[in-house]
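Posted in: Protein Modeling Q&A

I'm a second-year student putting together a small comparison for a lab meeting, and my supervisor asked me to include a predicted structure for (Na+)-NQR maturation NqrM. I've never done this before, so apologies if this is the wrong subforum. The sequence is pasted below exactly as I got it from our records. If anyone can share the structure token output, I'd also love a short note on what stands out.
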Amino acid sequence: MSTFIAAFVVLLLFFLLMSVGYIVKKKAVEGSCGGLGVLGIEKACDCDNPCDARKLRMQKEQERKDMLNQNRII
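Accepted answer (user: helix_wrangler)
Welcome! Here is the predicted structure, written out as tokens:
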């Protein structure tokens, strides 16, 4: 039982330190390899002509961004 408690405390300490680092640096946690950007792919769907479902999602996303910008206080 003491091993479980010790592991739990270490895990909580790890998350606490990560959150303090995030608050101080204002930077998101990211991988070291760079992901798809290293390969020259800017987005997950890198096709020239996206399908209708993708176009609809992109339109909804843009509408949501426009609404947030329009209702922004600061």
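A couple of things worth pointing out for your meeting: The helical segments are 2-25, 52-70. Residues 32 and 65 are 29 Å apart (CA to CA).
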